[in-house]
Amino acid sequence: RTQLYVAKLMATDGTFPQLDTVKQLGLPDPKITDQMKGIMNDLGISLVNWEQYSDWYEKKYGKPVHANAIADMTNKVIAMRKNGERLDTLPEEVSHFIIYAMKDIPWVKSLISRVEETPEWLEHSAAYTRYYNGDMDLVRLEVLGKILAKGLINEGQALTPKWRRYIMELWDRFLALFNS
To answer: Distance between CA atoms of 12 and 149, rounded to whole angstroms?
Structure first.
């Protein structure tokens, strides 16, 4: 098994939160949840208790977590609010790990630079720009995570054809990391 190592983000606390932005999706799908947990297992990512994690986070960083869920790159954990999970919650958090692990690959860098062309950018960028205090690199990673999550949920059917191709290729390249 190929080990993926993710480093702490320089500009933040190493987390990617799921904020309540424009759309609310339906309830989680057990099949998708199981698939995401399989990916998490392969990557060595743990699902942790929200209350314990948010208490730890607030003590460490001196501020509460204002999110439905959070992907903590530094500690390789995902925490989700018990009653806040939606269809896209776990896929989005897993997507952040995938994208963050691949963010320095030139092809992925080009995707990150083009994320502002998407409807998802229009939908989510304002909220995340405020959350990340204007750090647009982090906003781009966040929005790309949302796009990949859509691809994981429904094979990209909700994406434009161009971005569906990009996400399918991103997924294929991610899987290739384990087959090399």
So the answer is: 22
Report the run of H or E that residue 16 belongs to, with start and end.
strand 15-18
In contact, 36 and 96? CB cutoff 8 Å? no
Q: Which 3 state secondary structure label does DSSP give 53?
A: helix
> Cα separation of 84 and 10, whole Å?
28
Per-residue confidence in pLDDT tens, the chain, 180 aa = 222 222 223 234 556 556 554 455 678 888 989 989 999 998 899 999 999 999 999 999 898 888 889 999 999 999 998 877 888 899 999 999 999 989 999 999 999 999 999 999 999 999 999 988 999 999 999 999 999 998 888 766 778 888 888 888 888 888 887 776
Alpha helix ranges (H) inside 103-135: 106-114, 119-131
Beta strands in 31-87 (DSSP E): 46-48, 69-72, 77-80
State if pTM tops 0.85.
no
DSSP β-bridge partners for residue 69: 18, 80
Task: Give me the phi and psi of 82, to 5 degrees please.
Answer: -55, -45
Cα atoms in the Cβ-side hemisphere of radius 13 Å centred on 81: 13
* The two structure tokens encoding residue 19: 């904020």
> Token digits for 168?
């399918």
CA torsion sign for 56, 59, 63, 64 is positive
